């Protein structure tokens, strides 16, 4: 059994900070669950282009207001607490936070924990990060 408190990972190597978001990584690839689980903060007033070419992602909003826009041609969906979206086709998207968003994210395949978005907004493929 794996038991972990969010407060125990804040400020550790599992607490990844980027310009527009912080990802607190609760479950990672090396824990062999078949997915990774993240508690993510999207900073208010930001826009982040993301394109997970190598991962599928499901997201559940527990705090804040924003929107997700599929690019290049939409649609755009509002984000608020209780809303879930799944990027089931490696969808390229813009994530906009009107207020601070707190999102629970699941990735398949799981991430290793140190990934950051590349120039396309993607995480590298798992094989490239397993070394």
From TrEMBL:
<dbReference type="Pfam" id="PF06339">
    <property type="entry name" value="Ectoine_synth"/>
</dbReference>
<keyword id="KW-0456">Lyase</keyword>
<dbReference type="InterPro" id="IPR010462">
    <property type="entry name" value="Ectoine_synth"/>
</dbReference>
<dbReference type="GO" id="GO:0033990">
    <property type="term" value="F:ectoine synthase activity"/>
</dbReference>
<dbReference type="InterPro" id="IPR014710">
    <property type="entry name" value="RmlC-like_jellyroll"/>
</dbReference>
<dbReference type="GO" id="GO:0019491">
    <property type="term" value="P:ectoine biosynthetic process"/>
</dbReference>
<protein>
    <recommendedName>
        <fullName>L-ectoine synthase</fullName>
        <ecNumber>4.2.1.108</ecNumber>
    </recommendedName>
</protein>
<comment type="function">
    <text>Catalyzes the circularization of gamma-N-acetyl-alpha,gamma-diaminobutyric acid (ADABA) to ectoine (1,4,5,6-tetrahydro-2-methyl-4-pyrimidine carboxylic acid), which is an excellent osmoprotectant.</text>
</comment>
<comment type="pathway">
    <text>Amine and polyamine biosynthesis; ectoine biosynthesis; L-ectoine from L-aspartate 4-semialdehyde: step 3/3.</text>
</comment>
<comment type="similarity">
    <text>Belongs to the ectoine synthase family.</text>
</comment>
<dbReference type="InterPro" id="IPR011051">
    <property type="entry name" value="RmlC_Cupin_sf"/>
</dbReference>
